[in-house]
From TrEMBL:
It comes from Desulfofundulus thermobenzoicus. The lineage of its organism: Bacteria, Bacillati, Bacillota, Clostridia, Eubacteriales. One of its GO terms (biological process) is rRNA processing. GO terms for cellular component: cytoplasm. Belongs to the endoribonuclease YbeY family. Keywords: Cytoplasm, Endonuclease, Hydrolase, Metal-binding, Nuclease, Ribosome biogenesis, rRNA processing, Zinc. Coiled coil: none annotated. This is Endoribonuclease YbeY. InterPro entries: MetalPrtase_cat_dom_sf_prd, YbeY, YbeY_CS. SUPFAM superfamilies: Metalloproteases ('zincins'), catalytic domain. NCBIfam families: rRNA maturation RNase YbeY (TIGR00043). It is found in: Cytoplasm.
Length: 158
């Protein structure tokens, strides 16, 4: 399962350890969701200005956000074993991730891993519009983070 990483920003350094961790996060998310097929996910790292433009264009919200997901084939069934599937792009503002990691008190690495899980779950059709769906999504996010050793050791809030 390929995870493609494209760094389009210069504000926050992207080290090999981080890309390795996030690749594992994508893999664990797909396994936990029961979707371990030959799937391709792109992680795109951007700055606040870039994600603000995307947010305005695609969601009509003229401000930066932390993560946006762009599914390639929304509503399409997953392929049979052996078939490749391009799930889509997860676009993350590393500037926002750095700020939020500090704000929530758990650091940049856990925050960007959380945003990665969150974005991949959206690619798989999960949402958080209703309370039950939001609770299920949060449980899956925390389970993946625990699988990669990023347990929750801070006050609730993220």
């Amino acid at each position: 399962m390929p995870v493609l990483v494209n760094n389009l920003q210069e504000e926050v350094p992207v080290v090999e350890h981080l890309t390795g961790l996030l690749t594992r996060v994508v893999e664990e998310t797909l396994m936990l969701a029961g979707r371990m097929v030959d799937a391709e996910v792109s992680l795109v790292f951007v700055n606040d200005e870039y994600i603000r433009r995307l947010n305005r264009e695609y969601r009509g919200v003229d401000c930066p956000t932390d993560v946006l997901s762009f599914a390639m084939e929304e509503g399409e069934p997953m392929p049979e074993a052996g078939e490749e599937k391009v799930l889509g792009d997860v676009v993350i503002s590393l500037e926002t991730a750095r700020r939020q990691g500090e704000e929530y008190g758990h650091g940049f690495q856990r925050e960007v891993a959380y945003l990665t899980v969150h974005g991949v779950l959206h690619l798989l059709g999960y949402d958080h519009q209703e309370e039950t769906a939001a609770r299920r999504m949060r449980e899956m996010e925390e389970a993946v983070l625990a699988r990669v050793g990023l347990t929750r050791e801070f006050p609730p809030g993220r």
